[in-house]
Amino acid sequence: MKVAHVVRSDGFAGVEAHILALAPALAELDIDVRVIGGDPERMAEPLLANGIAHYPATTVRDVARQSARLHRWHPDLVHSHMTAAECGVLAASPWLRVPLVSTRHFAEVRGQGGRWERPYRLLDRVASQVSVSDAVAEAIHTPSAVIHPGVTAPPPDHDRTRTVLIAQRLDAEKATAVGVEAFRRSGLADRGWRLLIAGRGAEEAALRDPADPAVEVLGYRTDVRTLMARSSIFLATSPFEHFGISVVEAMAAGTPVIATARGGHLETVGAVSPETLYEPGDPAAAGRLLAELAGDPPRRATLGEALRADYRARFTVEECARRHVNLYEDLLR
Questions:
Q1: What is the DSSP string of 99-139?
Q2: Residues 78 and 186 in one domain
């Protein structure tokens, strides 16, 4: 089977990371894969190492041109990610004439409330839809199959330090400041704990406080998963995550998670430990959970192993790839 995954992008964030993890896993299942779009510097080399060709696509026109060229390869289907990629693939449909699959990464109706909402809704009738979470599936108002993104195997276990970790974009919608306030209210700094914040964004400078040595803003890091394996607690502060891949990476590392009780968190960490979820924007509740979990090492160990077991059962990249192959085979029957 030949499958092309397509995104209109020259960047590297959650969607591109999903494709980068999924494509090699599909190749391991004897799927011939090609990838269009995403940051060439981050994607081309690791894909090539797995025998997967990568083609850049910064604009919708680039997507259409690269997709049209696929007809010489004779793909069995094309799998797009995000509406812009879908539009580019549809522009190439006179040359391709193959089924289209579209993954919905965000819990929202296409073009909601804008002049493009009705035309975008037509896309739902053209492509078979995949949602990355139940939260997304419930929000998009069109039938879809839910396939959770998979996470590759974690790094080896490390000795845990007295550290709480936040790893996310440092933009306002992620509410990182709530996590900082929760840590301060927990009193953990007085017990020798630190809060590490990995990521970059518009709020990075504002989060830095030289007067508080217990809170350290690390900026962009390439070793986030190692940081997770060394931390004792992972804190996810975003008021709503469409899925929340960082939480699943923490689960894979066996790191206990405290997260907001919304969106994808309800079906990841919430399925294992609903008692460690808190209402968005409530630093007092998050602080209490931090203090309780930090003060109970046996509970942290038990919770970490339960989260790791759930990751192995539901969120490996191999399971994600297997479910995609099943979907593809059903569509092509």
A1: -EEEEE-SSS-TTTTSTTHHHHHHHHHHSEEEESSHHHHHH
A2: no
**Token match 């035309």: residue?**
119
Map residue 181 onto helix, strand or coil.
helix
CA distances to 7, 39, 54, 210 from 79, rounded to whole Å, are 9, 18, 14, 47
Q: Is the pLDDT of residue 24 over 80?
A: yes
User: Has this prediction a pTM greater than 0.90?
Assistant: yes
Query: Do 324 and 302 fall within a single domain?
Result: no
Residue 301 within any structural domain of the chain: yes
CATH code assigned at 36:
3.40.50.2000
User: Residues 173, 175, 177, 182: what is their CA dihedral angle, to the nearest 10 degrees?
Assistant: 180
236 contacts: CB under 8 Å, gap ≥ 6? 166, 168, 244, 246, 247, 250, 257, 258, 259, 260, 265, 269
Amino acid making up residue 192: G
Rounded to an integer, the average pLDDT of 106-111 is 82
Domain that holds residue 96: 2-150+316-332
Starting at the edge strand that comes first in sequence, how are the strands of the sheet with 77-81 ordered? 53-55, 32-36, 2-7, 77-81, 100-104, 128-131, 145-146
